[in-house]
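Exercise 7. Given the encoded structure of a 189-residue chain, write a plausible sequence.
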């Protein structure tokens, strides 16, 4: 199923930032490696009536449209009102009874889709995707039940990776501690 049949897509907004604003202006750098918004965000746009049509809604999907990867994140509404900068395309699911926005974002972030987007991208210096290209993207659409299962499995996999990384960090500390003890022990003998 083509993405345009299940979602609308619009471009981000270009606007000049100010020090103290009323509207959050989301940039790619505002998201961490887990695609969560930084807790330190400040509103940097002055409110203007014409910005209202670009205000993000809870569960809108932001996909980076320029750069080395086209990662996506689901906007959770925690910083509001907010608009996406021009580095993003904003995807709004038309019918959450057939597709979960979180599943669509997971699907867009999957290795297969990222590789496909890379091959379809344009540009010599900086790769980019546009609205038309994204509208034509074919989406595999399992049942909502299977979508939720995929999301649960992805969450479990993420927790597993976090635990493995913690174990690695603790083993490094343990090793360094043993080396320090060994060096100090030999120093006093």
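Solution.
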């Amino acid at each position: 199923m083509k993405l345009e049949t299940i979602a609308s897509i619009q471009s981000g907004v270009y606007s000049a930032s100010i020090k103290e604003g009323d509207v959050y202006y989301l940039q790619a750098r505002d998201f961490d490696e887990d695609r969560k918004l930084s807790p330190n965000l400040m509103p940097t746009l002055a409110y203007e009536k014409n910005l209202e049509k670009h205000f993000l809604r809870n569960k809108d999907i932001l996909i980076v449209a320029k750069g080395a990867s086209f990662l996506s994140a689901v906007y959770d509404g925690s910083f509001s009102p907010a608009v996406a900068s021009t580095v993003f395309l904003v995807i709004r699911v038309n019918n959450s009874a057939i597709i979960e926005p979180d599943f669509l974002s997971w699907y867009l972030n999957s290795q297969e889709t990222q590789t496909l987007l890379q091959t379809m991208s344009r540009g010599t210096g900086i790769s980019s995707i546009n609205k038309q290209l994204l509208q034509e993207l074919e989406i595999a659409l399992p049942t909502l039940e299977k979508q939720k299962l995929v999301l649960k499995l992805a969450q479990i996999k993420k927790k597993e990776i976090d635990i493995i990384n913690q174990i690695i960090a603790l083993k490094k500390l343990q090793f360094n501690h043993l080396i320090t003890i060994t060096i100090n022990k030999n120093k006093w003998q």
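Remark. Residues 37 and 104 are 18 Å apart (CA to CA). Students should compare their own answers with the one above.
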